[in-house]
Structure formats: C-alpha cells, structure tokens
Amino acid sequence: MPSRRVSLEVFRRDGWRCRFCGIPILLLDAIKLLNSILPEEIRWRAKPYRNRNPAFNLLASSLERVREGD
To answer: Which of 69, 62, 67, 68 is nearest to 17 (CA)?
Structure first.
C-alpha cells in the first residue's frame, strides 16, 4: 500500500471523490473520530461488518482500486 503522504496526495488530486463513481469520500481517520464521538450512529467497529453503518462503509477512503500511474 502507498504511504500516508502518497495516499493523501491521491485523495487531494481526485478532489476527495471516488475516481470510479464520483461519490465524496472521507478519510478513515475522520470516520474513526466520528465513531469515537457517536459510536451508536457510526458503528464503524461493529462486527460482523455487515452491521456497520452502510453510509460510512460507502464513504470510506480506499486506494485499493487505484492503478499505478493513474
């Protein structure tokens, strides 16, 4: 996986939107902070994962689909 610095550069480059579908994304650190404040609403650490808040699952930042050179 890319370093944190590279990850942030990619997210900034893409305007904090998914490169494939265009929806806004949130940095995982922001989701974790929200979860610490509102754990029942965010449910980020819920297990099984299907019990997580689906909106935050959708908005979570991820670089797993970004190809090198994009």
So the answer is: 62
Residue 45: the pLDDT is: 84
Which CA distances in Å does 64 have to 10, 18, 55? 12, 11, 19
| C-alpha to C-alpha distance for 20 and 62, rounded to whole angstroms | 12
The tokens describing 10, both together, are 């990619």
pLDDT in tens, 43-65: 988 888 888 888 888 888 888 65
Task: Give me 19's structure tokens.
Answer: 């490169």
- Token code pair at residue 8: 């942030």
Instruction: Give me 22's structure tokens.
Output: 């265009």
Query: How large is the greatest C-alpha to C-alpha distance in the chain, in angstroms?
Result: 40
Helix spans in 1-70 (H): 4-13, 28-37, 39-42, 54-59
